[in-house]
Amino acid sequence: MFFTFIIVVILTAVALVVAAMTIAHLIAPRSFNPQKGEPYECGIPTRGESWVQFRVGYYLFAILFLMFDIETVFLFPWAVVAASAGTYALVSAACFLGILILGLAYAWRKGALEWN
Amino acid sequence: MEQYYDLTPLLNLIHTWLCGWMPEWLALTLEGIVVGVFILIMYAVLAIILIYMERKVCAAFQCRIGPNRVGGKGGLLQVPADVIKILTKEIITLKNADRFLYNLAPFLVILASILTFSCLPWNKGGEILHMNIGIFFVLAASSIGVLGILLAGWSSNSKYTLIGAVRSGAMIISYELSIGICVLTMVVLSGTMDIQAIVANQADGWNLFKGHIIAIAAFIIYLIAGNAEANRGPFDLAEAEQELTAGYHTEYSGMHFGFFYLAEYLNLFITAGIATTLFLGGWMPLHISGLDGFNQVMDFIPGVVWFVGKTFAVVFLLMWIRWTFPRLRIDQVLTLEWKYLMPVSLVVLLLMTVCKVFGLVF
């Protein structure tokens, strides 16, 4: 039952995009103009490469995100049984979280969270 | 107290009746088509209502009238007219764009929002995808969306879109952490990841009231992070009009752009819907202990009315935030998340667990 419906939902999403695009292609006008293919840059022709370099800061945040996202994934099974597992599980999870908070504190101290 | 207009018996009855006079695969196919059409209709109708609501709310906050010409006095037909207009616009693909990824991006964005949309608990027994890891699935599915945004920005081969996509990607993945931890807090409180079970747990009081001030703190963090996840409010710097024209979807035209617009508004509804489910009791009616007459009257209102009503209340709250605060800079956005929300939400999680283990919650 469940797998039927998840397939149905995915197919619905695909069908929505395909159907709307088909309708748009059928009724939308089409005219050729070489200017239309240019990327928008305030109306003047693009200078240089469009795929420019961007800050390394974004990359650092992505790495930090990986660390904490995996932590969240690990904590989910614990969270379900947290109430019944009692104090022992609480202390172990607190240690786990503590190590991660230390990691965040290290990144903070090292300046990974600054934007200079 | 036990009547919440349960839909499960009705759905089972329809299923057995269909299986009675046709093979099961045909019955399942038929049900699948009905469910698909239902999702599409709900999706379109909600998007139209939300866009109209946003324009009216925005107008009210800026002391304007908002749409008032098309379709009578209130401008009710303005948004359907816009939909038809957007369908008749030419679809332009850039000369140097990566065609495959450029066309794939709207699929991913719409897929993420429809997958999460179909997990919302509309009523008792009234959700489309029911599974025991429901809320985890919502988190997983909603992170497909950021992939679509990054692809859209990168494949368009334009500077504005690339900067918009990178900004948006950094912001969304950062705020996903706070959302994940706030959800974890509520999972600890409920002891389950099943969305229907989380709602059923709130029969004797919504989680917002059950979890003391800790749940209220988690709710506020969730709202801030949810606003950022939906690329809205003070966090709409991915599409900061004044600097990036439209951010990651600058180069999309016509209906291609429409998908991003659609997904943005539905993500707003989904964020509010998950907030309702986790903190405000989902389809549970409002009960005040001691007032039996009041509680019985509240029980007569169907669950779907409660769910939609609460969700629209949260949507209004999010719109209020959006039209009140000025836009943040990217470094301020990331500082807010990593130096304030993230440590606070970790502390909130620990406090909630301590309260739960020592039985300090209601």
From TrEMBL, chain A:
Keywords: Cell membrane, Membrane, NAD, Quinone, Translocase, Transmembrane, Transmembrane helix, Transport. Gene3D superfamilies: NADH:ubiquinone/plastoquinone oxidoreductase, chain 3 (1.20.58.1610). One of its GO terms (cellular component) is NADH dehydrogenase complex. InterPro entries: NAD(P)H_OxRDtase_bac/plastid, NADH_UbQ/plastoQ_OxRdtase_su3, NDAH_ubi_oxred_su3_sf. Signal peptide: none annotated. The chain crosses the membrane at residues 6-28, 56-79, 85-108. It catalyses: a quinone + NADH + 5 H(+)(in) = a quinol + NAD(+) + 4 H(+)(out). It is a multi-pass membrane protein. The keyword Transmembrane applies. Its EC number is 7.1.1.-. One of its GO terms (molecular function) is NADH dehydrogenase (ubiquinone) activity. It is found in: Cell membrane; Membrane. Its main location: membrane. It holds the Pfam family Oxidored_q4. Belongs to the complex I subunit 3 family. NDH-1 is composed of 14 different subunits. Subunits NuoA, H, J, K, L, M, N constitute the membrane sector of the complex. NDH-1 shuttles electrons from NADH, via FMN and iron-sulfur (Fe-S) centers, to quinones in the respiratory chain. The immediate electron acceptor for the enzyme in this species is believed to be a menaquinone. Couples the redox reaction to proton translocation (for every two electrons transferred, four hydrogen ions are translocated across the cytoplasmic membrane), and thus conserves the redox energy in a proton gradient. This is NADH-quinone oxidoreductase subunit A. The lineage of its organism: Bacteria, Pseudomonadati, Bacteroidota, Bacteroidia, Bacteroidales. The gene is nuoA.
